[in-house]
Amino acid sequence: METSSWDYWVEQALSRLVSLKLIRSLRPIHLSHNHKPTPIEPNNAHNLDEYQVFDELREWDRASVEVEIAESTFQRWVEDIPSSGDDLVFSDGEEADNKVGEFPKKFKKLLLFSGNDYLGLSSHPAVAKAAAKAVQEHGMGPRGSALICGYTNYHRLLESCLADLKKKEDCLLCPTGFSANMAFMTAVGNVSSLLSADEKPLKDKSIAIFSDALNHASIIDGIRLAERQRSVQVFVYRHCDMSHLNGLLSNCTVKKKIVVTDSLFSMDGDFAPMTELVKLRKKHGFLLVIDDAHGTFVCGKNGGGVAEEFNCETDVDICIGTLSKAAGCHGGFIACSKRWKQLIQSRGRAFIFSTSTPVPVAAAAHAAVMVAKKEKWRRRAIWNRVLDFRALTGIPITSPIISLIVGSEEKSLQASRYLLRSGFHVSAIRPPTVPPNLCRLRVTLSAAHTMEDLKKLTTALSQCINFQDSGFYYTNGNSKL
Q1: What is the CA radius of gyration of the chain?
Q2: 435: helix, coil or strand?
Q3: Of 230, 242, 293, 406, which sees the most CB atoms within 10 A?
């Protein structure tokens, strides 16, 4: 059986939706650029040559890795005192009308090593200008779901450039990366019921989903929703264990198979074994789906992600991603075929019943995609920081996500507080995100970090953990499903 069978099944599911009059379409509202001129950027924002790019780090890039917190918040954090978030900041220095909190008088500067803004694009002038221009011309844009009135030419343009980046036929924007995974999985759960004449799907009409044990929570929650339709069987394979996956696939008699995995795992920082997955795909004919949230714009010559990095873009059937990490913006997307897009937008509840991304955010994200393509030095910079961290610590990390396992929850909190006092924002990762005995410090690197930043961080880290004793990731953790 070949994966082309999935094209047939999806086509049949769409035909069923047409007969039931349940097919849903996107009809973009055109927002003109000429009716309201703006002094910020008089040229058409959709002209790709109009985005200003740079060839090295600039002063504004530091805004993506330098933060301030109120001194009172800092003290509560160091002393591990629960906070309700009442340290409100007001630009005019006055108290809030509701008197919840007072304007903090003192601040503590911290160097951020816990965010996901891998390329430092959140503070890029081109991204900010694109958002500002869209706000001046359209406000927040039409507010409604994409199927009602929230889908515009801005959204369509962003979808098109993401489809091009991922080498896919089309793309569907979602409000978040979480909702993108949820929408896809619930749409998958609908395929069997649509293909079944009976109320309850027959066994030979069901779908088998094979999920890595350490997949993201959004994949897991989506699978759980799909399971409720009683048309999905779920098999969890040990983390990145291709022998285990091969055994499960070989013993499964269900024809419709899907393998879903994070491409770059958010807590462990290790890559899915893409080469081996591609071989298994050719052997078993499953649909290969990756969540490339942490790989998009970071990996690959053109920022196409982990599939581009491993030269297997055509072997990945569906690529789910986010615009809230390396793009420095907000939102999620599903790069796929036109058939899959129509199915998801017709049956993916997390997409259907969510208000679409505001127009200024879509404009900013489009600018970020263009900048990420052009400023290739940012990808070189972040991978140079990976090499620098390896050289400074001797820890063989393989990505900008560094998982330093310290053991107990108390040890991880003590280490995090020490780093806080040393001027670094590094969070302790505790249950339920990770098992109780595998608590850790999750350090993330950015193109906006300098070698000097890393030297200071690793010096502080060496005072609270032992680099030789710390397991920097684990490959056989307990399943989250």
Answers
A1: 23
A2: coil
A3: 293
Answer for the pair 94, 103: CB distance below 8 angstroms, yes or no: yes
- pLDDT on residue 199: 57
* Region of residue 51 (left: phi > 0; alpha: psi -120 to 50; beta: else): beta
Count CB neighbours of 169 within 10 A.
13
The identity of residue 425, as a single letter, is H
DSSP per-residue codes, 374-415: H-THHHHHHHHHHHHHHHHH-----SSEEEEEEESHHHHHHH
- As a three-state string, the secondary structure of 182-205 is HHHHHHHHHHHHHHCCCCCCCHHH
pLDDT band for position 325 (cuts 50, 70, 90): very high
- AA identity, residue 14: L
Residue 202 has pLDDT above 90, yes or no: no
Give which of 142, 116, 166 is closest to 334, Cα–Cα: 166
- Alpha-carbon distance of 242 to 261, in angstroms, equals 12
> Under DSSP, is residue 67 helix (H, G, I), strand (E, B) or coil?
strand
237-291 confidence digits (pLDDT tens): 999 999 999 999 999 999 999 999 999 999 999 999 999 999 999 999 999 999 9
- What's residue 466's pLDDT? 84
Whether 318 contacts 6, CB under 8 Å: no
Q: Return the structure tokens found at 181.
A: 């995974």
pLDDT on residue 46? 45
N-term to C-term CA, the chain: 28
Specify whether the CB–CB gap between 112 and 425 falls below 8 A. Answer: yes
- What gap in Å lies between CA 464 and CA 459, rounded to an integer? 9
Query: Which two structure tokens, joined as six digits, stand for 354?
Result: 């969510």
Q: Alpha-carbon distance 83 to 413, whole Å?
A: 16
Could you tell me if 362 and 158 are in contact, meaning their C-beta atoms sit under 8 angstroms apart?
yes
DSSP 105: S
- Cross-strand pairs, 233: 208
